[in-house]
Design a protein that fits this description.
The complex is a heterotrimer of chains A (418), B (97) and C (503). With 418 residues, chain A is an alpha/beta fold. Helices cover 49% and strands 7% of the residues of chain A. A 4-stranded parallel sheet of chain A has the order 2-1-3-4. The longest helix of chain A is centred in the first third of the chain and has 18 residues. Helix content of chain B is 28%, strand content 13%. Chain B has 2 helices and 4 strands, in the order H-E-E-E-H-E. In chain C, the strands form 4 sheets. In chain C, strands 12, 13, 14, 15, 16, 17, 18 and 19 form an 8-stranded antiparallel sheet that branches. Chain C has a 5-stranded antiparallel sheet with strand order 5-6-10-8-9. In chain C, strands 1-2-4-3 form a 4-stranded mixed sheet. In chain C, helix 1 runs antiparallel to helix 3. In chain C, strand 8 and strand 9 form a beta hairpin. Helices cover 32% and strands 20% of the residues of chain C. The chains are: A alpha/beta (418), B alpha+beta (97), C alpha+beta (503). At the A-B interface, helix 7, helix 14, strand 4 and helix 15 of A face helix 1, strand 3 and helix 2 of B. Strand 4 of chain B pairs parallel with strand 12 of chain C, so a sheet runs across the interface.
């Protein structure tokens, strides 16, 4: 058994806090989660199962191992939530007992313990340090001709004449603000075309979600406090989250941080756009003659049960043929882009994305459409290799609405030097 | 289109009792009597969207299972008879009920 | 022999394993890899976890690697424990003597789909639901569907000779596996089937070795490939549930249904009084049961629409003959679909004061003839209540009886009593109590001419001690076979009393 730093008190607190979650899984140990887990589909190593993530808590309680022994194991998770929803403890009785499987929280808490014990991973440490310096994620690395940071956070909006502030703001995700600017531009112009009144955030920082996912709880909270204060100062009442990761963070972590003080209304872009189409406020008149299949982003489908709106949108685009794979089958699909995995285990992310594109290839389609800009980077890399284009759903909506989007679908792979 | 509003998610409606050990707060969503919990296992602070997600996912999963095993699921197309109380055996010559 | 546990491997042995595998991350000796391959879902002595940890874990990809690993284990006299899904319910994959866990999950490929001669050949590490997702594209399926359908793996199904919910219609694992490749305890790779043909279902050539190895519980080798049956995907399914106030009427109803001659009948399940009481705790999520309901019969048909549609009318009539009340379409649809992942949730557990406690699930799985079921139900319920009262950490979750034979719905039943155990509170005394409970229940099965286990196996304490009694004269034959095939007792040693082969 290895030594942990300090007197083990932090680990004991972790075990105390998560023991019940641990036992609810460990006493059952039925592993219905295993075959839906995207990491498990690649590694087939039981150490990386949600079962192990929970069993480790009991093992720590029994003195069999310490956080140091399992630190690398907890890196192997995209926090997609597939295991949580599939687990019968959630799916069949979670609502009845008002107690469900919470693997995402367990993994985050383990990663937070790793940070507190000085066991955090080098790549994550650097990523989050840079995020703290730039106030945005270093999605372009620290080299390159379009650096990130506050001086450039609104560059994507050039020529769009967007106001700053107002009751409703569009929260521009870091990956979309700097890397896949076609997404932010498409979104803003679609909203403009539909006559939605909105502005941009006054001081647009990262939502703080990735820090929470990788275990940097204090930083996540600090960013959340800044953002909420900025919204209050600008009179913001409503936030349009254009990215599933932000939507998760605003609807799960911000309420946890602020309680009933969190009085901001949050809507998700695909649901808003579906409503705009349904109400006739957004007309999709230009055909897109392509055969496509839809990728259910994990943080929309598995974590939030948002899967009807995007399909409605795609079926509303003239000329588009949708070869659909149902959203329950997609509980086991993933891009591998979440939870900091691409930073620490890029080879696993790549294999998960390759598997996703192999599924798409079987359907004989031109294009894989996603609704999550973070998924689009690994999916696009995999798509290039098999000759399938990867598009964002709002980019297609913009095209069909006759909008000249501009922006870029992403520069070459950035490197974050160590 | 759903809108996340804190009060809607976290302020719980009043419970009505369904049976020993079972209550109901949201329409058609049964819950354990909270008095039976929180001694050896604690309830979580589950926002309404999460309960709704679980219920919808369960129904979708069960439908998926049906399709997974057969092209078509046939049903008797008859109402529940449970309200009639226990039935009696009939002899083979009698008409079915 | 390997009487003392191997808790740590010689560096030389580890080096040899790494040379065989020649792949980083395929030979694991760290504590996390070992601790997380100690238990299976069956109740586990968590207070003695360390005693059930292997010394090392290997993740092979080929039969040749498995063969070399087993040969090395013989040379080094180190136990080997095969592990597929680790989802079994009788500790088949739990190391009792440390040693090397051979974890076959990376052998999960679909190697061939033969739509002409109707077989699919796979590695032992593949899950049936995942397999059927692929086979669905061809409108066929491999209908091996236990309650662990979404998580168990083919290697484990063969090791246990598993039970399928649809077995009365399509057969169980032993019928649905046509032939398989196995690495013997001395390292030879052989193929076993009915005779020698890989895709031959019925033969009279030689000894029927497939049947010997089917259900071997990992004590006679490690499965490395299997050729499986492809069945046309059914056009239609139909399920109906009937409620009774009297268990005996439910029991008689089932007799009428299973002897009716309906060919599409896939399964019939009886719920006893305690089970209905248990389902009232939280299966309210499906449909509330009025207080008069004490027993339920569930039935299902699979086949062409023409057959199922007609048979459903007969079934509805048979379900009502003894006074059964139809529970409605909603339950028929919702509850039947949930049977494919029916491992029990821990929060079903209730203490004497009614409070909820997370419990591990024991699932008894005796095979018993229809005629003795009511009596067994009384005896098991009384025994269980005795232990519930005495120890305070057990809970009776009631009984299910499932039609158990292949291709016929009559004869014997998988008779299940489900017992909750508050694992967190286990100590040596309570664990001993649990084992006594288990053994008393198993003895009842033998007293009524049954078999201790329909499908989980008898590899754990509480069952294993009774295997010689159940096997009678056959026990000696088993010992001879074990000794002949595994001279050094390295293959899953200590299981099922087979150590007696070496005395």
């Amino acid at each position: 058994m290895s030594q942990s730093s300090g007197n083990g008190e932090l680990q004991r607190d972790f075990v105390e806090k998560w023991r019940e979650n641990g036992y609810n899984c460990f006493s059952s140990g039925h592993k219905f989660c295993r075959e839906v887990c995207p990491v498990m589909q690649v590694t087939r190593n039981e150490n990386h199962t949600p079962t192990a993530f929970h069993a480790n808590i009991i093992a720590m309680d029994k003195g069999l191992l310490d956080i140091e022994d399992v630190a690398d194991d907890y890196v192997h998770c995209t926090q997609c939530g597939g295991c949580e929803i599939r687990c019968p403890n959630t799916l069949f009785v979670g609502d009845f007992y008002q107690a469900r499987t919470e693997t995402v929280k367990v993994v985050r808490a383990a990663r937070a313990l790793m940070v507190d014990e000085g066991l955090d991973r080098d790549g994550w440490k650097l990523w989050n340090r840079l995020t703290n310096e730039l106030k945005n994620e270093p999605v372009l690395g620290i080299e390159g001709d379009r650096p990130t940071g506050q001086d450039h956070v609104r560059d994507w909006a050039e020529g769009l004449d967007l106001p700053v502030g107002g009751e409703t703001i569009m929260f521009a995700d870091c990956e979309a603000a700097f890397y896949r600017t076609s997404n932010t531009r498409a979104t803003a112009q679609v909203l403009q075309k539909a006559g939605v009144e909105f502005g941009l955030m006054n001081e647009q920082w990262c939502c703080g979600g990735p820090a929470a996912e990788m275990g940097y709880v204090d930083q996540s909270r600090a960013f959340a406090e800044h953002n909420l204060a900025d919204w209050r100062a600008s009179g913001v009442k409503r936030v349009i989250a254009i990215e599933p990761h932000d939507y998760i963070h605003f609807t799960e972590d911000y309420p946890a941080y602020f309680g009933e003080d969190f009085d901001i209304e949050v809507v998700q872009i695909v649901e808003l756009v579906a409503e705009l189409i349904k109400d006739g406020r957004l007309k999709l008149e230009h055909p897109i003659n392509k055969t496509v299949t839809y990728h259910d982003p994990c943080r929309l489908n598995k974590r939030k049960n948002i899967h009807e709106a995007p399909r409605y949108i795609l079926r509303s685009i003239p000329g588009l043929v949708l070869e659909d794979v149902d959203h329950v089958t997609q509980w086991s699909y993933c891009s591998g882009g979440g939870g900091g995995l691409p930073i620490e285990k890029p080879e696993i992310t790549a294999e998960i994305s390759d598997m996703r594109l192999a599924r798409a290839k079987e359907l004989d389609v031109d294009m894989l459409v996603s609704a999550c800009v973070w998924s689009e980077r690994p999916l696009a890399r995999a798509g290039d290799e098999v000759g399938i284009e990867v598009a964002d759903i709002i980019e297609l909506v913009a095209e069909s609405a006759g909008i000249e989007v501009g922006g870029s679908r992403g520069v070459s792979q950035p490197t974050v030097s160590r | 289109m759903r809108k996340f509003v804190y009060k809607r998610e976290f302020v719980r409606p009043e419970a009505t009792r369904v049976s020993d050990g079972v209550i109901m707060r949201l329409d058609d969503v049964y819950e354990v009597d909270p008095d039976l919990m929180n001694r050896h296992f604690h309830q979580q602070e589950m926002p309404r969207w999460d309960t709704e997600r679980i219920v919808a996912s369960r129904n979708d999963h069960l439908s998926w299972m049906h399709t997974h095993f057969a092209d078509e699921t046939l049903v008797a197309g008859e109402e529940s008879e449970l309200d009639l109380g226990p039935g009696q055996p009939r002899d083979a010559s009698a008409e079915p009920q | 022999m390997t009487a003392n546990p191997t808790v740590e491997l010689d560096r030389a042995v580890v080096a040899d394993l790494e040379a065989i595998m020649d792949e980083p991350g395929s030979v694991l000796t760290d504590v996390s890899s070992r601790a997380n391959r100690s238990r299976v879902p069956a109740p586990f002595p968590v207070h003695r976890w360390a005693e059930h940890m292997p010394a090392a874990v290997v993740l092979p990809r080929t039969a040749e690697q498995v063969s070399e690993i087993v040969k090395l284990a013989n040379r080094a006299r180190v136990p080997v424990v095969p592990r597929a899904g680790g989802t079994g319910l009788n500790d088949g994959a739990v190391p009792l003597r440390g040693g090397i866990v051979v974890d076959v999950k990376r052998m999960n490929q679909i190697k061939e789909i033969d739509m002409i001669d109707r077989t699919v050949t796979v590695g032992p590490g593949i899950n049936m639901l995942k397999l059927n997702e692929e086979l669905g594209k061809y409108h066929v399926f491999h209908p091996d569907t236990p309650a662990s359908y979404p998580c168990s793996l083919v290697g484990g199904r063969i090791a246990c000779s598993g039970f399928s919910l649809l077995g009365s219609r399509f057969g169980h694992t032993r019928d649905l596996v046509i032939s398989f490749e196995i690495v013997l305890p001395t390292g030879e790779i052989i193929r076993v089937g009915d005779g020698g043909g890989k895709k031959i279902r019925k033969s009279s050539t030689g000894f029927h070795l497939k049947h010997l190895f089917m259900g071997h519980q990992g004590t006679l080798g490690i499965v490395t490939e299997a050729t499986l049956e492809l069945v046309p995907k059914p056009e239609a399914e139909f399920a109906a549930f009937f409620a009774f106030d009297d268990y005996l009427r439910a029991h008689r109803t089932v007799h009428g249904i299973v002897t009716s001659g309906i060919a599409t009948l896939a399964g019939t399940v009886i719920f006893d009084e305690k089970k209905v009481e248990y389902l009232r705790r939280d299966d309210e999520a499906f449909i509330p049961m009025p207080p008069w309901v004490n027993s339920v019969v569930a039935t299902a048909l699979y086949g062409t629409k023409a057959e199922v549609s007609e048979a459903s009318k007969i079934l509805m009539d048979l379900g009502r003959r003894e006074g059964g009340r139809y529970t409605g379409d909603e339950m028929a649809v919702g509850d039947w679909a949930s049977r494919h992942d029916r491992y029990a949730n821990p929060l079903h557990g209730r203490l004497a004061d009614g409070s909820v406690a997370p419990m591990s699930w024991h699932c008894e799985d005796a095979s018993l003839n229809w005629s003795v079921i009511p009596q067994v139900r009384e005896e098991w319920t009384a025994i269980t209540q005795k232990y519930v009262d005495r120890y305070g950490i057990f809970d009776n979750w009631g009984m299910y009886c499932y039609t158990n034979a292949s291709y016929k719905p009559w004869g014997d039943y998988l008779v299940e009593i489900d017992i909750g155990i508050w694992e967190e509170k286990l100590d040596d005394e309570k664990w001993a109590g649990w084992v006594d409970l288990k053994r008393e229940i198993a003895k009842v099965s033998l007293a009524h001419g049954g078999s201790i286990s329909s499908c989980h196996g008898t590899t754990r304490v509480g069952d294993a001690e009774l295997v010689p009694e159940e096997m009678g004269g056959g026990w000696d034959v088993m010992l001879k076979i074990k000794r002949a095939l595994d001279p050094n007792n390295i293959m899953n040693p200590g299981k099922q009393m087979l150590d007696q082969a070496y005395e």
